[in-house]
């Protein structure tokens, strides 16, 4: 299928997701299940990664300060800026494209190849609404785990900086508070919300419209990871230009 | 009763159904037979409204699916039950959850009413100890029973089964075939069963439609299928050594 045709069917899919909603009683439990799977289930890995990335950013910054003229609080400042602007929203979303994205593609893809999606449609259920809508709603909570990831990342920087002997606690904290622009956090959360939508829908698209058997489910998960990451990277560029440029 | 008139269906260059016309009767198990790839599944998905024919029409007791409003289509769908080839049970739900699913989606019944109804149909398919199990924990034959239970839980007027005994041992296959036939009689349903299994033809074939390369090559009853001179049919029917031998004995006995 050509790229244009794919973009077209993706758009049609999105419209279909919001049509003919599933009964609220059922939808409620689907959403709670997805929150557990997609949000709560990702917390551990994101905290782990953020802590160590924060640490590495602090160490790298410290090692690259050679001149005595550069203020000591730069380590904290640089850690905060990199974590809030890029590592938490963008880097974590790429990790999520791997973790959550491949889960979504393979679970929906398996339902497709085992005719479970046909079974839903035969019953008159809007399968796209039933399967994709709860994922979109669950991922509205994604900014919360990114906020946690920001805290943990900066904390990781502090630990590495102070206990590695690269900075004093006072210098680091002074850096973290230096020239703080609240809009940067807003910018990060706008990105995060856009990425959340991408994380829910592109992997669903690849799973829902796949053809073939078990082998193709694996391939679809890989393709879905590549496309989700590519779209996140491109949107990151566009949003940065629009919001900060 | 389902009337199929001159139905054509193709996917891109692949011309799958090339003008099928037939009638599937109420209260009968109608069989669609033919080799793998002959278009049986595509035909059944047209009957379900999952595929719309490129040409021709399908009417369910006078209602032509393609001419109905989306709401009427949905109502008609709720009169249909489908047993998929691989059972297509929702693997995130228990057996009971699977059977209750259509009730939860489309009725206003209370939890206990739905439980009772699910229990009733599960008993009807002779399953009474698997309610809380997940599909992956039960055998293929049991999965088929659950799929049948789910298909009949809403009291359908039409029941479609795509190769209901594929992947089952011959004994279980016959039990499942008979179950489908009993249910058809009991509730006076229009049932269409796809199969390439001659045992099913022997067991439950009241009306048989033989598809070959997307064309209806022959139709008739199970008594007629053993007497026909149609070469394509006899090649299909007598493709196994067992049936060849049976036929030979039959001819010898006659002479
Ligand atoms: N959705 C589809 N898109 C394209 N080709 C299809 C589709 N569904 C079925 N076919 C093709 O239609 C032909 C008949 O398939 P099918 O009806 O499944 O055969 P049967 O059920 O008799 O074994 C096959 O060649 C298959 O590849
Ligand atoms: Mg088939």
Which features characterize this protein?
heterodimer, A: 245 residues, mainly alpha, 9 helices, 0% strand, B: 255 residues, Rossmann fold, six-stranded mixed sheet, 10 helices, 10 strands, binds adenosine-5'-diphosphate, binds magnesium ion
Structure explained in plain terms:
The complex is a heterodimer of chains A (245) and B (255). Chain A is elongated and about 70 Å long. Helix content of chain A is 84%, strand content 0%. Chain A has 245 residues and is mainly alpha-helical. Chain A has helices at residues 3-17, 24-64, 74-113, 116-122, 127-139, 142-163, 169-177, 182-208, 214-244. The mean pLDDT of chain A is 94. Chain A has 9 helices and no strands. Chain A has one domain. In chain A, helix 2 (24-64) runs antiparallel to helix 3 (74-113), helix 3 crosses helix 6 (142-163) and helix 6 packs across helix 8 (182-208). Chain B has 255 residues and is an alpha/beta fold. Chain B has a single domain (2-221), classed as P-loop containing nucleotide triphosphate hydrolases (Rossmann fold, 3-Layer(aba) Sandwich), CATH 3.40.50.300. In chain B, 41% of the residues lie in helices and 24% in strands. Chain B has helices at residues 40-47, 70-77, 95-106, 111-124, 140-152, 170-187, 198-204, 222-225, 231-237, 241-254, and strands spanning 2-11, 14-24, 29-33, 55-60, 63-64, 80-83, 158-162, 190-195, 207-212, 215-220. In chain B, strands 6-7-8-3-9-10 form a 6-stranded mixed β-sheet, sandwiched between helices. Chain B is globular and about 65 Å long. The model of chain B has no long low-confidence stretch (mean pLDDT 92). Classes of the chains: A mainly alpha (245), B alpha/beta (255). Chain A binds chain B through residues 22-23, 25-26, 114-116, 118-119, 121-125, and chain B through 45, 48, 50, 73-74, 77-78, 80, 82, 84-86, 88-91, 101-102, 104-106. The structure holds adenosine-5'-diphosphate and magnesium ion (MG). The site of magnesium ion has 4 residues of chain B, from helix 1. Chain A: Keywords: Membrane, Transmembrane, Transmembrane helix. Chain A: This is ABC transporter permease. Chain A: The chain crosses the membrane at residues 38-63, 83-106, 185-205, 225-244.
